[in-house]
Amino acid sequence: IGEWTLPGARFPLEMARDADAGSNSLLTYQLTSDPSFSLSMKEKPGGKKQPELVLERVLDRERQTSLELMLTAVDGGDPARSGTVQVRVNVTDANDNPPVFSKSVYEARVPENLPVESLVLRVRATDADAGSNGRVSYSFASVPDAVRALFAIDSENGEVRTVGPLDFEANNKYIFSLEATDGGGLTDHSEVQIDVTDENDNAPEITILSLSSPVPEDSPTGTVVAVVKVRDRDSGENGQVSCELSGEAPLSIVASSGGSYKVLVLAKALDREEAAVHELVLRASDGGDPGRAGTGRIRVTVVDANDNAPVFSQAEYMVRVPEDVPVGSVLVNVTAKDADEGLNGHVKYS
């Protein structure tokens, strides 16, 4: 009997036979008490009665898959004699139960360097029905293509695996819906939340926003020479950056309030005559383990200032000449040099 069968349905049972005659063969029937069934008698030609099983209430296969009843036939003799037969009612399934996920929300945390085809989580839905009505398959509900490009679900076992590389910096959380469907088309839905954790997979990046070069050599200390932006796309300690200048640079680093901008200022007076060009390397290191670093090169040219006076090759020239030397005669060549360049280093005599 199907569990969808409505109350009042009748099911004929086998009639008993009695070899006696007369009242000794007159039969009555009795059924063991069960709230789901009652016994009814149907008149047959010749005065015989056909026992019928009458359904009193809807059956539920998920609650009880079968019922055992006992039908007894009693004759009219004295003493009465009886015979019994067992009636087994098997309840056949209707797709009256949808699949049900074990959780309304499934959560997982995975690192962004998780290899492709790695298991992220496993979902499970059960269906109280039998056969194909209780067989569950899994699929994505309405999800964007970006999710399908990164994740896939096994329709048979409910395993969610990666099919593409994850990137914390691109997206650190994915929320999407899954659907469980039984063989009869009934469904249930559940939500999946996947948090992607950061790995130190990005090196600091240095961008020179402005550079004042050449710099006059008489510029005062504290003069801004360059403004750079330092950025690390990672988060937490992986994105915390410290900077340093290599070599004996005449510059020092001043961090902005946010820390992402660095200002390079003169830390000491310049001297073009000592070094006309400064080649600097700015190194930015993050706090990851293992750490990553990025470098930026800065070239600063020093412009001459007239900070050097001419210097004679000798402080005093001693010349001996005869008193009859002709007018216009060269008495001595004097030389002076100036360490500056250009017009600042051009010497005139008087």
TrEMBL record:
One GO term (biological process): homophilic cell adhesion via plasma membrane adhesion molecules
Keywords annotated in UniProt: Calcium, Cell adhesion, Cell membrane, Glycoprotein, Membrane, Repeat, Signal, Transmembrane, Transmembrane helix
Predominant location: membrane
UniProt cross-references to CDD domains, sorted A to Z: Cadherin_repeat
Membrane topology, as annotated: Single-pass type I membrane protein
InterPro entries with a match to the protein in the record: Cadherin-like_dom (IPR002126), Cadherin-like_sf (IPR015919), Cadherin_CS (IPR020894), Protocadherin/Cadherin-CA (IPR050174)
Presence of the UniProt keyword Glycoprotein in the record: yes
Annotated Gene Ontology cellular component terms: plasma membrane
SUPFAM superfamilies to which the protein is assigned, alphabetical: Cadherin-like (SSF49313)
Ranges where the Cadherin domain occurs: 16-101, 102-206, 207-312, 313-350
A Pfam family recorded for this sequence: Cadherin
A GO term, aspect molecular function: calcium ion binding
Localization in the cell: Cell membrane
Zinc keyword on record: no
Protein name per UniProt: PCDGE protein
The species this protein was found in: Picathartes gymnocephalus (White-necked rockfowl)
